[in-house]
Amino acid sequence: MIRFENVHKSFEGVKVLDGVTFDVADGEILAIVGPSGTGKSVTLKHVVGLLAPDEGSVTVKEGAHIGYLFQGGALLAWLTVRENVALPLKETTRLSASEIDAFVDEALKAVGLEESADKYPAEISGGMVKRAGLARAIVRKADAVLYDEPTSGLDPVTAQNIHRLIRKVNDERRLTSVVVTHDLSGACSFADRIMMLKDGRVVLIAKPSEFMKSELPEVRDLVSASKGEI
Fold this sequence. Notes:
The protein is α/β, with parallel strands linked by helices and 230 residues long. The chain folds into 2 domains: 1-64 and 143-230, Rossmann fold; 76-142, no CATH class. The protein has 8 helices and 9 strands. The protein has helices at 40-47, 81-92, 97-111, 126-138, 156-172, 184-190, 208-213, 217-226; strands spanning 2-11, 14-24, 29-33, 55-60, 66-69, 144-148, 176-180, 193-198, 201-206. Helix 5 (156-172) links the parallel strand 6 (144-148) and strand 7. Helix 2 packs across helix 3 (97-111), helix 2 (81-92) packs parallel to helix 4 and helix 3 crosses helix 4 (126-138).
């Protein structure tokens, strides 16, 4: 579905991605972890074409629709949940109002927000805002979804529910997902593979069980930090 090959990216002379190579298979969930400022979010922006590599290539399956869940949910405060979810369809398709309603109802049902459809963002919880953002990301029948820190600012219980939802929606809708997160233990609960970035380079890509057992110093430091040992 997605392939990076020797991707380099710099901003004002500062190297952010330094020869990044990886791929994401159809139906897979890849979690990207690592210290702040290592290029995780920059990687997502390359997938959707918001950024282009200075060197190397980024390839996305031809014709694939990509949904994007922004870090804060990015809902428009003056629109209801339903109106927020419908926005991509109204802006980019010629569907009728009834067709749009059907797509929106399906997306809201997938994330469990049917009963909050007519509420405004200020009237729902942080977890619901994230779920509404996910509904908007998948409403156009997305083939893949990119998540930028989907649980930032959430309490542990709500974060765990979002992790379960990521796995559920991915499997039920046969998506491919890339999730940028600082929550390593959470990533282990939903990801098929975990990739660590540090200093703009790929340190390791492995299944969660293999990742947590790695003896690489950078990985050990990250695992220890996630357990509160340092």
